[in-house]
Amino acid sequence: MGKVADIGSKRLINLAPDAWVQWVTQRPEVVAKEILGSEFHWISRETDVLVKAYSATHGDFLVLNELQLRYTAQMPLRMRAYTALAQERYRLPTYPVLINILPPPSTLTIVSSYEQEFLGLRAIQDYRVINLWEIDAEIVFQQPLPSLLPFVPILRGGGEVSVVQRALQALRADAQLNELESLLAFFASFVLDTPLVQQIMRWDMAVLRESPWYQEIEQRGIQQGARRQLIRVLEQRFGEIPHEVEVRFEGESVEKLENLMDSAIAVSSLEEFVVILST
Known about the structure:
The chain is an alpha/beta fold. The chain contains 11 helices and 7 strands.
């Protein structure tokens, strides 16, 4: 049976930090100097990784890596906040990168900047967006990018059995990588039938349930179910719901969605519900 994977983002990027920063910045001369702490007092996230990098042209700078399982409407504001906090803490220019692992709901449009204007003042933060489902799986083997090997099944062209087997062989050939088998199997289960994944991996798929990624997917499934139920109740009571109202449900906890469900049942108008939503 494969070992439970240490699948923290810092662990993955640390497998080949130079190759990683060169890939996300698209600049082959960049090298990684150090993976830094990314806890900003009240913020501590495993998916947020800061790398101190260097290039002869730009000197020292930060590469902020945000690996997001699924994009949410809150991501632009989060990228703005994290970038500012990183730059303030380390006093270095910051190159923020958002890596989306799985496609978001069709109701969401992925954007690559945060923009707000208030009382004549503007706040703008650009960041690079990498959607893994748009990345050619062959790049992982050619460059190589060992940090992306577990994600091969969800990359473009990576869902073929032969490609998944190739990624598995690469993981098992390196003692530093073979503990990532369960993460590879997890993402393979999105594109291949479970018995076929079991046959490829040659171990019990129950190991996936021990993965934090599996638990996060499961939790998000519960959240999405609660979100859909809330929308259904609102539509039944008040007709079509404005898109800007639906978007505000993204990323909310199950507890918050359940409370909103109680409100949706109790209020007498959609306008009254929106007031409660804004509090």
